[in-house]
Protein backbone atom coordinates (compact mmCIF):
# COMPACT_ATOMS: atom_id res chain seq x y z
CA UNK A 1 0.00 0.00 0.00
CA UNK A 2 2.71 2.44 0.94
CA UNK A 3 4.58 1.85 -2.31
CA UNK A 4 1.39 2.45 -4.29
CA UNK A 5 0.70 5.67 -2.37
CA UNK A 6 4.23 6.93 -3.03
CA UNK A 7 3.89 6.09 -6.72
CA UNK A 8 0.62 8.04 -6.91
CA UNK A 9 2.19 10.97 -5.07
CA UNK A 10 5.12 11.01 -7.52
CA UNK A 11 2.74 10.93 -10.48
CA UNK A 12 0.66 13.77 -9.01
CA UNK A 13 3.78 15.84 -8.45
CA UNK A 14 4.85 15.28 -12.06
CA UNK A 15 1.48 16.57 -13.32
CA UNK A 16 1.53 19.66 -11.09
CA UNK A 17 2.13 22.99 -12.82
CA UNK A 18 2.95 24.81 -9.61
CA UNK A 19 6.55 25.81 -9.14
CA UNK A 20 8.25 26.57 -5.87
CA UNK A 21 8.91 30.25 -5.30
CA UNK A 22 12.57 31.16 -5.05
CA UNK A 23 12.52 34.33 -2.93
CA UNK A 24 16.20 35.03 -3.39
CA UNK A 25 15.88 34.91 -7.19
CA UNK A 26 12.83 37.21 -7.03
CA UNK A 27 14.79 39.60 -4.80
CA UNK A 28 17.74 39.68 -7.24
CA UNK A 29 15.38 40.31 -10.16
CA UNK A 30 13.74 43.20 -8.30
CA UNK A 31 17.11 44.75 -7.44
CA UNK A 32 18.17 44.55 -11.08
CA UNK A 33 14.89 46.12 -12.19
CA UNK A 34 15.32 49.05 -9.77
CA UNK A 35 18.96 49.44 -10.83
CA UNK A 36 17.85 49.58 -14.45
CA UNK A 37 15.23 52.21 -13.65
CA UNK A 38 17.77 54.37 -11.85
CA UNK A 39 20.25 54.09 -14.71
CA UNK A 40 17.58 54.98 -17.27
CA UNK A 41 16.59 58.06 -15.24
CA UNK A 42 20.23 59.12 -15.19
CA UNK A 43 20.49 58.30 -18.91
CA UNK A 44 23.35 55.88 -18.32
CA UNK A 45 23.88 52.51 -19.98
CA UNK A 46 25.84 51.12 -17.03
CA UNK A 47 27.00 52.30 -13.61
CA UNK A 48 30.09 54.55 -13.63
CA UNK A 49 33.32 52.70 -12.95
CA UNK A 50 35.10 55.50 -11.11
CA UNK A 51 33.83 58.16 -8.70
CA UNK A 52 33.21 61.69 -10.02
CA UNK A 53 36.00 64.24 -10.01
CA UNK A 54 36.62 65.82 -6.61
CA UNK A 55 35.16 62.85 -4.76
CA UNK A 56 37.62 60.97 -2.59
CA UNK A 57 36.56 57.39 -2.00
CA UNK A 58 38.64 57.05 1.17
CA UNK A 59 36.90 59.93 2.97
CA UNK A 60 33.39 61.32 2.93
CA UNK A 61 31.65 63.82 0.64
CA UNK A 62 33.35 66.88 -0.89
CA UNK A 63 33.23 70.09 1.12
CA UNK A 64 30.93 71.96 -1.30
CA UNK A 65 28.32 69.17 -1.05
CA UNK A 66 28.53 69.24 2.75
CA UNK A 67 28.16 73.02 2.79
CA UNK A 68 25.11 72.86 0.51
CA UNK A 69 23.52 70.18 2.70
CA UNK A 70 24.20 72.11 5.91
CA UNK A 71 22.84 75.38 4.51
CA UNK A 72 19.69 73.58 3.34
CA UNK A 73 19.21 72.08 6.81
CA UNK A 74 19.65 75.51 8.43
CA UNK A 75 17.12 77.05 6.03
CA UNK A 76 14.57 74.34 6.82
CA UNK A 77 15.07 74.88 10.56
CA UNK A 78 14.56 78.65 10.16
CA UNK A 79 11.38 78.11 8.15
CA UNK A 80 10.08 75.74 10.82
CA UNK A 81 10.66 78.39 13.50
CA UNK A 82 8.85 81.08 11.48
CA UNK A 83 5.87 78.87 10.64
CA UNK A 84 2.93 79.46 12.97
CA UNK A 85 2.05 76.47 15.16
CA UNK A 86 -0.54 74.17 13.69
CA UNK A 87 -4.02 74.45 15.13
CA UNK A 88 -5.40 71.02 16.04
CA UNK A 89 -8.81 72.15 14.78
CA UNK A 90 -7.41 72.53 11.26
CA UNK A 91 -7.07 68.78 11.07
CA UNK A 92 -10.79 68.18 11.27
CA UNK A 93 -13.33 69.23 8.69
CA UNK A 94 -14.92 72.58 9.27
CA UNK A 95 -18.64 72.90 9.78
CA UNK A 96 -20.54 74.84 7.22
CA UNK A 97 -23.02 77.28 8.73
CA UNK A 98 -25.84 78.55 6.60
CA UNK A 99 -27.81 81.64 7.46
CA UNK A 100 -30.93 81.95 5.31
CA UNK A 101 -31.49 85.60 4.48
CA UNK A 102 -34.92 86.89 3.65
CA UNK A 103 -35.22 89.53 0.95
CA UNK A 104 -35.83 92.97 2.43
CA UNK A 105 -39.52 93.65 2.95
CA UNK A 106 -41.57 96.62 1.68
CA UNK A 107 -40.55 99.58 3.76
CA UNK A 108 -39.48 97.66 6.81
TrEMBL record:
Keywords noted in UniProt: Glycoprotein
Gene Ontology cellular-component annotations: extracellular space
InterPro entries with a match to the protein in the record: TGF-b_propeptide (IPR001111), TGF-beta (IPR016319)
Pfam families cross-referenced by the UniProt entry: TGFb_propeptide
Domain TGF-beta propeptide: 16-98
Gene3D superfamilies: 2.60.120.970
Highest taxon of the lineage: Eukaryota
Protein name: TGFB1 factor
Organism: Bucco capensis
UniProt lineage: Eukaryota, Metazoa, Chordata, Craniata, Vertebrata
Gene name in the database record: Tgfb1_0
